[in-house]
Amino acid sequence: MIKTEATMSNIIEVENFTRRYGDFTAVDDISFTVPEGSLFGFLGPNGAGKTTTINTLCTILGINSGTMRINGHDVDRERNLVRKDIGIVFQESTLDGKLTVAENLKYHCEFYQVERNIIAERVDSVLDLVELQEWRDTPVSGLSGGMKRRVEIARGLVHVPKVLFLDEPTAGLDPQARSAVWTYIRRVQEEQGVTVFLTTHYMDEAEICSNVAIMSKGRIAASGSPSELEERFAKSVLELETTEPERVFDYLTGEGILFDVERGRFRINAGKTATELDILGLFRNSILSFSTDRGTLDEVFLAIAEGEAM
Amino acid sequence: MRGLFAVFSRNIVNFFRDRLRVIFSLVMSLFFMFVFSFVMKGSMSGIAQPMAYLVAGIVIMTVFQQALNNSTEILNDLSSGFMKEIIVSPIPRWQISLGQILSATAIACIQGSIILIMGFFIGLRVSAAGLFGTFGIMIVAGVAFSSLGLYLATVSRNSSTFQIAVSVVAMPLTFLSGAYIPSTVLPHFLAPIVYLNPLTHITAIFRYVALGLYSSPVSALVKEGIAFDANGFIITPIISFGFIVLFGLAFFLLSLRKFTSADFSSVKAAMARHRH
Questions:
Q1: How many domains does chain B divide into?
Q2: Burial A95-112, CB ≥16 within 10 A → b, else e
Q3: Does residue B157 or residue B18 have the better pLDDT?
Q4: Which residue from B minimizes the CA distance to A91?
């Protein structure tokens, strides 16, 4: 098969994808690509169309219009080829509670036609990855929510997929379990070289993604690396203390830059890193101390949501 | 075919993991055997081997109930989410549905056989050839009613009241089948229901084979409620068997078709509601 350069580097390609439920358009003409080996975050509030998109990529839902390709295979027409290339961790548990951890993994290997002689080895290696080796013979119903999620991650990987999809992998978990799940997700991406595609509405979690797309009302409102988005949308704040407050005051007023003063410290809403550097350069000899608050994806998210509302 | 076998094996393992459920389903059959054996002793006019007659009826009703219950287990797999794991795997849908039907059939036949073995202790005698035949008919019954169950479950999908509805319908039909109380003692106005009831026919052919009544005259069979006189037309056990085969085949094909094209993604909404 001849592959173009684009399909070599992008493991997922979505073009003009639209999904309707009756009159309601859940996803409206979105396009994006996911580079191979990346950790891609698909963000947005509830009802933005994230789950519809991920379910369509996972071959559960049909496509109304547009195309989706995973590893060069058409998601709608080559479902079984796509299914072998992907691992899925759904929002809700899809484990068989009566079976043990190892049995769940072994049956998964059977469903995905993993060669018989390597099943035991694969099950061992994914159990090591999520550190559940000592729980292998425990019925799944006896595990905590966080451990179940880890079993699901292990199961999603046991057939060695190209892409691992995780729909809200940390929803409903306590902070400790959340951080454990994140450790394994990063391990999967960094050590196993698997492309990870996840949805979340915890913006702090999305910071570690290599790329994110923010969905709002069925459309992609913004996409890029988290730092790019923060630069573009978040209000970063420069705080500084100076020996020449009057000069700084005049400069900022003259440039029309928003700021306020609190107990002798300036809080400047510069907006862009370049502007902040200008200010720091200009007053370098009179600055006593300064700090910058970079802004977070949370702010990006709110900025986009507010923009949509206006 | 590996997918089919995996679905089959998982269902069997899952069923026998729940020891309490296995025991309860058997206790139910044994309870019926105990209670109706008193009825039999009292009202058995014209039935030559009353205990064997009763045991045969209970065996085939056990097969029926287990086949129906276990094929509708997919509703539990849908609500627990496990069905999603299977649906998104590369296993073809027809193998999934066939795996469901065959596993429900196997469980039903195992349960039926346990009752059959217990029957040997209370007077059931089956020849070697008859034993072969009884297993054959148990398998036919298992496939037919598992297909029916899978079809109904696939059509209804996320209804949690569905399983109750099924047992509400199945209960009167089992009593009108002649399995526990011979259909000959039922009031005449129920005759049309009795004749149309597939359970009547599976019970009739099963008794015919299990009791080895091949040489009995038709009039004797009618008297025992194993053949039926529908206004002069005699429904022999062979016709009953044909009816069951057609009934089973129809639902087998219907359930495969329905399951293969079913959209299980809509089940998610119900599950989300259940979760919160």
A1: 1
A2: bbbbbbbbbbbbbbbbbb
A3: B18
A4: B272
